[in-house]
Write a structure and sequence with these properties.
Alkaline Phosphatase, subunit A; two-stranded antiparallel ribbon; 15 helices
Amino acid sequence: MANPNLDKIKHIVVIMMENRSFDHMLGYLYPSGKSSNGDAFDGLTGKEGNPDQSTGKDVSVFQISSEDPYRYVMPKADPGEGYENTLSQLYGHPANLKDGPFNQGFVNDWAFAYKNIDEKFFKEKDGVPPAYPGINNNDIMGMFTPELLPVMSGLAKGFAVCDHWYCSVPTETIPNRSFIHMATSQGVLKDTVEIKQPDGSMKKGQFEYTAPTIYTALTNAKVLWSMYGYDAPPLARSTIKELQEADNSHFGTYADFQTAIDNKEMAEYVFLEPQWGVTGNSMHPNYNVAKGEEFLLQVYNSIKNSTYWEDTLLIVNFDEHGGCYDHVLPPSNAVQPNAKAVDPSTGFDFTRFGVRIPAILISPWIPKGSVFRVEENGTPIDHTSVLATLEEKYGIAPLTERDKAAPHLGDALSLSEARTDNPMEGIQPPSYIPPALPKGGNRPGHIQTMHRGYLNQLHERKGSNMTVNDDDWFNKTSYEANEYLRKSYHDYYHENGYHND
């Protein structure tokens, strides 16, 4: 029998932002360690630190100053976010998973990452943004305050913050995002992998995910779903086989999402992606966090001011920590999705979670000032808890052993009557224009580059020459990159007749 709390809602909307840790964004939300209604909160005390091997001294966490001209682009460069980086951050280098040191490698890994950003602004033509001037080893220990993030902190205090939501795997973007779509990354640990070519040679490219998705399961259960990019096609459609083959009517941009709300046609499950690139609102380091604040408030107000408010659960989370500091060691009790979920190059078996990420649950059925987490020693919340919630609500079978074990989020909807207040009334997103970008800064970013790779592979499979090489790609601005992605996507899914609208 489904959790009765889930009967209170008819819609679930997820916004997955990009590459920030819990402490980095929300660690100072409740400095006393207790929320406004007395719930325990696992945040920062201000005494946390990390050693700097270049000086032999500890670097303490510090609150980013409201007077810092770089406050919303901290930590001023892109930290390392891959599997090897994460192990260095959590277990030292070389990594010692048994004895640590635990969570004491963030400063040293950060120093290596930003000092090795290529002078042409990218590593291996991967879209890594350049560093802002004045960067130093201390920057990775800078933490946002509630005052700097009025939208995120307002939503977290006004509804429920999840202080023990872990990303699904200790690595980078695409594998973690795959878990919220299909409860596995099929043993893949990297955004870019070696792919065997028809002639037997190996070439770097994007792994196409072929596991069953929650979207096909929802379709089979006759549950409507939609996926939206912000102003460009959603990345997820290009990465996953089942989504490539889904009808075009499931996909759109944020403007289409707003139209669906206005026309009272919002799907029962909605997945939203932010705007990628340096001028976007994804919050990826070192992009403008203030734009992400604006985006989150935009989504909240769209739902709050609609007929859907009372029966919607809005979930805000991040795909992974992006190399940003967090003081909590991820648990090692993750359930392996299946026996084949093993990375052959490292032997990693997907039984260890990634770093905590910021996560907020928003609904009028949630008490103000809630801190939502599972009981101690229980399986913690990760991205597959979204799938577990959908499965619990609609009677859908789990996709893998991971979402089968994951706790659902229904217990957060604990009120007997829906609230009528608006804790976000009067709150405005911060107004911020970052200092001038470093040379080459307004170029395609990492996610845009990954999306280009996926679309190129789709076109090449159909024998199309609608591709762009590295030199031409990295001469584009971030805006031009999104324009290219729109055209490439449209040509593949529409003009080639891949699907009818």
